[in-house]
Amino acid sequence: MNIQEFYDSIDENYENVSSRMMGNQKLVEKFVRKFLEDPTYKQIKESVEKMDYDEILRATHTMKGIASNLEFTQLQQKSAKAVDMIRAGEKETVLPVIDEIEKEYQKVVDAIQKLD
């Protein structure tokens, strides 16, 4: 699967991320592959295990930015929802949203692993 097919497989818009990176397909692919090495998801998991809401907020906010930059809009939106909920004091109800982030993250990771 090439990078355009990757974006199609996760129902995201390759053209948006491509234009953000000046049409450089190799650059897009480089950053998508680097996503696998990013520690943010692990930080989310660890902060949830500790029930450290300050750290959950920081990590989900970071994930929101990374996902936005890579045009992973579904992951970005779920992360933004978690950030907004924690900021609004809805800490007790944020865990189902974290589950949604985990599912979306795994979908993206599985698709990245299928890149040529």
From TrEMBL:
UniProt entry tagged with the keyword Phosphoprotein: yes
Short name of one Pfam family: Hpt
SUPFAM superfamilies assigned: Histidine-containing phosphotransfer domain, HPT domain
Domain HPt intervals: 20-112
Modified residues (Phosphohistidine): H61
Keywords: Phosphoprotein
Protein name: Hpt domain-containing protein
